[in-house]
Every structure is written in structure tokens, then in C-alpha cells.
Amino acid sequence: MNNNFLINLRFSLIKVVFYYYIKRRKMKKIIAFAGKGGVGKTTSLVLFLKYVLENKKAQDILVIDSDPDANVADVIGEEVKFCDTIGGKMKILKNKIQSMKLSPNTPKNQLIESDVYTCLIEMDDFDLLEMGRQEGEGCYCFINDVLKRVIDTLSKNYDLTILDSPAGLEHFARKTGRDVTDLVIVSDASKMGIHTMKRILEIIDELTLKFEKIWILGNRFPEDLKDILVKEVENLNRDRVKLLGFISNNEEISKINITGGNLIDLSEENSSYQEAIEIFAKII
Ligand SMILES: Nc1ncnc2c1ncn2[C@@H]1O[C@H](COP(=O)(O)OP(=O)(O)OP(=O)(O)O)[C@@H](O)[C@H]1O
Ligand SMILES: [Mg+2]
User: Fold this and answer.
1) Rg (CA), the chain
2) Three-state SS string across 254-283, please?
3) How far apart are CA 122 and CA 235, in angstroms?
4) What does DSSP assign to residue 208?
5) CA-based nearest residue to 65, from 177, 143, 173
6) Ligand 1 within 6 A of CB of 41
7) Contacts of 51 (CB under 8 A, 6+ apart)
8) Paired strand residues for 161
9) Domain architecture of the chain: domains with CATH
10) pLDDT on residue 25
11) pLDDT tens figures, 175-197
């Protein structure tokens, strides 16, 4: 066979391998949803997940529900037993230590981290990790430290990690080693929602957290109030903070929620989902 042909073939192969390597590296994203309690973080996150799944925007997806009141599972109509959450595993471990089945000198962190992998719930198209609540006395510092390490180690195995953050931003106060690439701050049409949005931005400055992009998402804003959020974002005068857009209040979303349905099954023609598709295309 011609030598030139073989050399060209080798170069082409290297190019293809390099292209896919770069593409896969570029894909790794960690996206967190934050905002005041009840503004629609989990709802927006699940609509984002639906958008990613239906448009095949990522292959390996991990959803981490870091809210102690397990939430994502509720919105997708799944029941997660407490013992299958990280909080649940911690309780079992604590009982084992107390009943002397384990030496108190056994490193607790390592035990919990190895248990974390058994908490991964495999759904059809993504994996779900529920933090669950921490029972008994003690603060959330420990569980948050575990969460930090979980995000750091687990997210390396996924193209896309989506985080549902608790309202209090506890885990942002403990910087994760791997930088969250995009932060979506959700606000509803309330003074408190906008106040929390600004507070989150202050915390980000105080802790010098690095996000490639910070997006503001207005959920359930009546048409005539949208301008208020637009102006608020403009007045922030920050390059990295951009208005993502709005998702309208929608009866079907409320209905799915109260009847315990799966929000991912929301009709593709649903007007709020159509809005979601348009705005989430800015992220991925
Ligand atoms: N666009 C929407 N249209 C209709 N209902 C909505 C919409 N967004 C959120 N909701 C409803 O509002 C309620 C709160 O939403 P959600 O649970 O997503 O908020 P959250 O910010 O995650 O709350 P928490 O801080 O308690 O975790 C739910 O009942 C949800 O169905
Ligand atoms: Mg929630």
C-alpha cells in the first residue's frame, strides 16, 4: 500500500480521536439551580432536564438533589426511601458506630463516601442522588462536606451534573473543588425572591466562587411585572450575570405537581415548556 496513504490515514485517525476527546472534555458541565424557597428551582431544574433529554444535549447525566427535603424525586413521581439517601446512610452508619459494630476510629468520611455510590438511583436516562435530611442532633456542616466531595468525585464521571440547591446555599458556603460552570438563580415575582437573588450574588463575591456564567430566571412572572426583573438585572451591571428569560405560570405544571405525576412527561407543546426550551438553549 502507498506510504503516503498510510500516513494520511494515521493523521486522519489522530484528528478524529483528538476531536472527540476535545468534544467530550468541553461537554462536562455542572449546572446548579438556586434561589429563595418555593420560587420554582426544582420545577425549572426538571424542565431543564426534560429539555436536555429530549434534545440529546448530554449522554451521561447526574442529578443531585442537595435539598434536605428531597424534592426532585417528588417532581418526577419517584418515591425515594430515606434509607436510600445520603442522610439515611449516615443514620445507619451512626447506629453501627453507637452499637460498637464499627470502631469509632474507622474514618467516617471514607465510609460515607463509599456508601454514596450505593445511593445512586439509576433512572432510565439519568442517575439521581438524593441527599435526604440529616436526622438527630448535629449541624449540616458534615453532610455538606460529604456533598462537596461527592460533587467533586462523582461529577467527573458525567457529561452533565445538575444540582438542586437548598434555599440556604449551605454547600456554596463550602466551595466545591470542581467549579460549577453555570449557576441559574431563580426568582419569582416577589421582593423576597429578588432579595435572595442579590444575596446569592453577594455570597458569590464574598467567597470568590467562580462560575463561568450566572443566569437569572424569572419564574411565574405576570407579563406586566417582567420589566422589573429586566431592570434589576440591568442595574446589577455585571458582565457575567445575564437574564436567562421567563417561564410562565402554568396550570398543567401545578396539576402534575399536586397529583404526584412526572413533570418530565409534560406535553412538548406545553407553552411554559416551549418557553423553557427557548431559554435553556442559551445554556446548552
Ligand atoms: N411555572 C410554574 N407554573 C405552575 N406552577 C409552578 C411553576 N413553577 C413552580 N410551580 C409550583 O410551585 C411550587 C414550588 O415550586 P418548586 O418546588 O419548584 O420550588 P422550589 O424553589 O424548588 O421550592 P423549595 O425551596 O421548597 O425546594 C410547586 O407546587 C410547583 O409545582
Ligand atoms: Mg425544590
Assistant:
1) 21
2) HHHHHCCCEHHHCCCCCHHHHHHHHHHCCC
3) 43
4) T
5) 143
6) yes
7) 57, 273, 276, 277, 280, 281
8) 30, 62
9) 30-280 (3.40.50.300)
10) 53
11) 554 567 899 999 999 999 999 99
At residue 116, the pLDDT reads 76
pLDDT tens-digit series, residues 63-84: 998 877 768 998 998 888 888 8
Strand partners, 65: 130, 164
- Residue 252 CA to residue 267 CA, distance in Å, equals 9
Class of residue 104 by CB neighbours under 10 A (exposed 0-12, middle 13-18, buried 19+) = exposed
How many residues are given for the chain? 284
Residue with grid cell 410562565, as numbered in its chain: 248
Ligand 1 pocket check for 39: Cβ under 6 Å: yes
| 51 Ramachandran zone, left/alpha/beta (phi>0; psi -120 to 50) | alpha
Residue whose CA lies nearest to ligand 1 atom number 9: 40
Write out the H or E segment, with its range, that includes residue 161. strand 160-164
Q: Residues 72, 74, 80, 82: what is their CA dihedral angle, to the nearest 10 degrees?
A: 90
89 C-beta neighbours (distance < 10 Å), count: 21
Report how far ligand 2's centroid is from the alpha carbon of 40 (Å). 7
